[in-house]
Amino acid sequence: MAEAKAIVSTGNAGFDAILKGGLPSNRLYLLEGTPGAGKTTLGLQFLLEGVAAGEPVLYITLSETSEELDSVAKSHGWTLDGIDLFEFSSTQEVLGEEYEQSILHPWEAELGDTVKLIQQRVDQLKPKRLVFDSLSEMRLLAQDTLRYRRQVLALKQFFAGRNITVFLVDDLTSVSGERDNHLHSLCHGVVTLERLTLEFGPARRRLQVQKLRGVDFTAGFHDFTIRKGGVEVYPRLIAAKHNVEYRSESVKSNVQALDDMLVGGPIRGTSTLITGPAGSGKTTLALVYVVAACARGENCTIYEFDERIATLMARADSMGLELSRYVENGQLVIQQIDPAEISPGEFAWRVRSEVENRGSSMLVVDSLNGYMAAMPQEQQLILQMHELMSYLSQQGVVTFLINPQQGLVGSMSTNLNVSYVADAVVLLRFFEANGRLRKAISVLKHRGGPHEDTIREFRVDAHGIRVGEPLSNFRGILTGTPEYFGEEHPLLEARSRAD
User: Fold this and answer.
1) pTM recorded for the entire structure
2) What is the domain class of 7-236 according to CATH?
3) Domain extents for the chain?
4) Burial letters for 361-376: b for 16+ Cβ neighbours within 10 Å, e otherwise?
5) From CA 147, how far away is CA 454, in angstroms rounded?
6) Which residues contact 311 (CB under 8 A, 6 or more apart)?
7) Mind listing the pLDDT tens digit for each residue in 393-405?
């Protein structure tokens, strides 16, 4: 039986997760992408991982100068100490064979001489990791497709017997503008980096492992960002691979009438969609469950897309919900999310970090409109949300999704139909009674068990929320403008702070 090939880390935890541990060593890999996609940064991370392991590493650059590479490294807080640079520059002449750093004119030198210099440097240093940046200059030197491919094949055969893990970098700037698929067949693996420019906000980046022989990698696109410290990759979420055992039980809000409507409350591992017009109390309703969970000693997380955190906490504290107390002791984490700055893949990774690293058992997404802004294509958003909800369900997390409806009164609609994704749907409405505007709450569905089919009054005041007795004398419910015409005594009145 053949011995299993040793695996080497890429120096990037997210990338290694996609590769199920890393790359088979002593193989040739193609790292391709348009300029600005992050190839150089990922290549440097790969080499720095080798430096940390005490390995000799070599960076061959035909396009960038050592000063440019040093600038890239410093922007991430790195140093190039330990990385041997082999630079091709237009400012100096070629040195002799005994050199620390070789320099030549790529447009004047013959391709064969260039390859020979590279081979001499490799034999001199005997690196374990090598980054060749980039193949575009080799195309220019070759001036012929057949000759270029022969030289790349010769390089592959040269590296093959020397126990080197090689990254060939290609910026896809060929004269014809077409991708060289022949190069794909020569390499043991192919990784493609993409940089997408949106109409608003920063560029989005994603990577895809096109092929990797002998490795059961995670296929598809994976979002990533370039930040200080390097490339941060967010592996695509696959819910089926994250299943844990948990106790199925109802989660109470400590508001008896509200718990009665859901016959005990939402079940662990389910999601509840709270929908209604602006100002109807959707966020406050979710906060009641969060505060009750924190009071039981659980960890919770709120992702705030719309409202500012300071405003949310001030409003909650004024109603006696004491969010600031649980934020201070670490039980509650509130993350401000800017939809223009975050990709869906990064958001899913943040959710995973909260659930798996901090043990968060309850999440609130406020609101889905903000989340939708992070995903321009609605169909992909539904699939992404479905996968995320499946993951949270298998982790036993209670999730609240807040979905504002368009309009305040009358027939209202939503621009995102996720009601089928949620296990329970709670509807808040305004209604008119005796010339006053009031709020009503009802449960439309509850997959986790039975629920009331009644309509109750819902009121938010200085003491939090109250849910009244069932109100039967309504008309016009399905028109979107319900009107109550029953007795006045079942209706809730305001409480003062002293009550």
Assistant:
1) 0.86
2) alpha beta
3) 7-236, 241-484
4) bbbbbbbbbbbbbbbe
5) 78
6) none
7) 999 999 999 998 8
